[in-house]
Amino acid sequence: MNSAASTTFTAPMPAVGVVCLREGQVLLIRRGKPPRAGQWSLPGGRIEPGERAVDAALRELWEETGVMADITGLVDVVDGLFPSDGAGPGHHYVLIDYAARWMSGIRCPETMRPMPASCLWMMPWRPCHGKKHDASFLRRRE
Question: Do 40 and 68 form a contact (C-beta atoms < 8 A)?
């Protein structure tokens, strides 16, 4: 049994994330709310009642970044366990992460002004046996 199992958490909450790729770069957002407020993360959020997970992914991507994308596949489903800050139980999210290909946009949806510094595109490198690899592992296999 791990330490997370001995901590009190909320009931699991379904949520989505989007690994949105454009010219070999991945889109990140700076989180505005807990958990992980102020940290860089994938765009995403909670699934609304009656909403399909893939529709929630596209909605969250648009709401947070003004980007429209084409979902190309499922990346992974993982548990996000965020311990309590001392005021109540910790949060448990079941995170459904999708891969997507950028189609258009990078504007604030409300004002259509360029996005603030809370969004950025970056090269997604991951170490593997001392080498660097790009994000091609996120692309759908034809």
Answer: no
User: Rounded CA gap, 123 and 66, in Å?
Assistant: 20
The 10s digit of each residue's pLDDT in 1-52 is 455 555 799 999 999 999 999 988 899 988 887 778 888 899 999 999 999 9
Q: How far apart (Å, rounded) are the C-alpha atoms in residues 45 and 93?
A: 10
Contacts 24+ apart (CB under 8 A), 42-46: 42/17, 42/18, 42/97, 43/17, 43/18, 43/67, 44/15, 44/16, 44/17, 44/18, 44/95, 44/97, 45/15, 45/16, 46/13, 46/14, 46/15
Share of the chain above pLDDT 90, in %: 47
